[in-house]
From TrEMBL:
Organism expressing this protein natively: Knoellia aerolata DSM 18566
Compartments it resides in: Membrane
Domain called Cation efflux protein transmembrane: residue spans: 19-209
Start and end residues of each Cation efflux protein cytoplasmic domain: 220-289
InterPro entries: Cation_efflux, Cation_efflux_CTD, Cation_efflux_CTD_sf, Cation_efflux_TM, Cation_efflux_TMD_sf, CDF/SLC30A
Name of the protein this chain belongs to: Cation transporter
Amino acid sequence: MGSGHSHGHAGATHRWRLQAAFGLVAVFFVVELVAALTSGSLALLSDAGHMAADVVALGAAVVATRVAGRPDRSGRRTYGSFRAEVFASGLAVLLMVGVAAYIAVEAVRRIGDSAQVATGPMLVVGSIGLVVNLIALALLRGGAGESLNVKGAYLEVVADTLGSVGVVVAGVLVAATGNAWWDTGIALAIAAFVAVRAVLLGREVLTVLGQHAPAGMSPDDVTTALAAVPDVTDVHDLHVWTLTSGMNVATAHLMTSDGADAHAVLDAARRVMRDEFGVEHATLQVEPESHSGCHNTTW
């Protein structure tokens, strides 16, 4: 028996965007890595490192959209595998933090060294990388607002786009001044930006995994709206959380006056959850005031 949660989700809708971006970034990563090693540019190497993280993150995001839509044959995943997309976003966070740390360590190690940087490859490869990243951004932007999985990939590419800009700027400054410190300084700036974006995305991932109330939805407002349903006298044991992007879930107990039409109360409450809060999966338990079952629960 499956879980019954087999309908479409935001990540699957935008899978083609992830696949196209993955192909572009993977091809360019090889080019940039070779150029970074031959030119000696830390800014270029840092951008190549972040590009490698992009390849892994985008690949994981693509796989996650497929896993999320896979039917459950075990009968144990009652919510399906939709959380796979959230875990992929978590992987993107870890990769971004790792890349930022690596860049920072390499920059510190270079302090005091007279590194020789070939600016020609920096400018050429940085410019090509900027074009590739802008195309990838255009592909992913359409799904970033609907899927946390796509948003994680999008933020990866945003950071990498900044990295490409940094490589070009570093190349120009090093060529103009002959000072390789510009290369190191811009590499550190890229690392700082990547770290900040990782923290912001990580907070969103933890909010979902921690089953907090969805952004923009106040549990107090939900309680008030349900309490306003005719014949409802009390609302308790309310829980609202996000399963994955675009899929919010809720449970609640509705106490009703004796003699109330339970079917009418249930239908009205479901309409409130769907129309006012966008929650299609709301499990609502209707209890008459004379029912004392909830008093026997232990938590």
